[in-house]
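The freezer alarm interrupted the setup, so I double-checked each line after restarting. Inputs confirmed:
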Amino acid sequence: DAGITQSPRHKVTETGTPVTLRCHQTENHRYMYWYRQDPGHGLRLIHYSYGVKDTDKGEVSDGYSVSRSKTEDFLLTLESATSSQTSVYFCAISGVSGVGTDTQYFGPGTRLTVL
Amino acid sequence: EDQVTQSPEALRLQEGESSSLNCSYTVSGLRGLFWYRQDPGKGPEFLFTLYSAGEEKEKERLKATLTKKESFLHITAPKPEDSATYLCAVRENTGNQFYFGTGTSLTVIP
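Predicted 3D structure, all chains:
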């Protein structure tokens, strides 16, 4: 998994509770991404980071926030979880520079269920 | 509007029966096209990156090709272990977003 871990791997929570998912990399890659994967929609970008404390929104960012205080960690927070946020969440990283910058490598995923 | 469309949605092949998966895209300027393999319950695994029309990449029984409007993933003499969902993604020249298709679920029957 290219030195990427996600925690927790599974989580069940209730509507209205805050949830934080963690992505940790050991590759020193500059770019980190959070996606959600749902049947019929494919992978959709939530937020991404292009450096420490530098983040930007993706196509489905409503209801999510992110933070990156260290190169190796990228946190995704659901401030008040809703059932529509039940999904599988994947973290990805991409390279430092050059041609390899574009290729994304994915973590193992976190399955989140909001009841 | 969908930037990436994959077909077919599902494909069943006999072991040894070669075939192709299609990925068509509509982005205005292509920076790169990416193929991934995803097994159930796991994250996508990188296969290939293609940057320009006419480019080809190969890995074992897989060969990816690129034109100005689409990419093909050719599978030659597939084996049951090739069964997985194959995802295609594109990145435009501008911005930092990658757009993924919904995938083709491949089943190879022994």
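Quick read of the result. Chain B touches chain A through 22 residues (CB under 8 Å).
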